[in-house]
Amino acid sequence: MNDNEKKVVKKMITLYCKSKHNTKGDLCDSCSELNEYAFARLERCPFGNEKPTCGSCSIHCYKPEKKEQIKKVMQFAGPRMLLLSPIVTLQHFYKEYKRKRLYG
């Protein structure tokens, strides 16, 4: 379930960790913990495979501290993903667009 979202989150956290924490290869402890937390949230998502993007979700399932962490990651990595993984990024934008057209 949500394998595509897991790949995207992992890419974003990896990009953030390499740039901000100067890691090579593995994630630092903080980013690794955030990645595990994000995966757990995705596994428990009540929307399943119909999950909206986090920005348009009506349920806010992250704890406040983790929400701030992932927000920083997404703000940093999001624009860079367009250059590094354009197809994945465009799929994300399309999913957001499609959901807004269906649900307003």
* Tally of strands: 0
Uncertain residue segments: none
The total domain count is 1
Give the biggest beta sheet. none
Please state the overall shape, judged from the principal axes of the Cα atoms: globular
Topology of this protein?
Layout (H helix, E strand, L loop, with lengths): L2 H19 L7 H15 L20 H21 L1 H18 L1
Describe the protein.
This protein is mainly alpha-helical and 104 residues long. The protein has one domain (3-103). It has helices spanning 3-21, 29-43, 64-84, 86-103. Helix 1 (3-21) packs across helix 3 and helix 3 (64-84) crosses helix 4 (86-103). The longest helix is centred in the C-terminal third of the chain and has 21 residues, at 64-84.
Offer a concise description of the structure:
With 104 residues, this protein is mainly alpha-helical. It has helices spanning 3-21, 29-43, 64-84, 86-103.
State the main characteristics.
104 residues; mainly alpha; 4 helices; globular
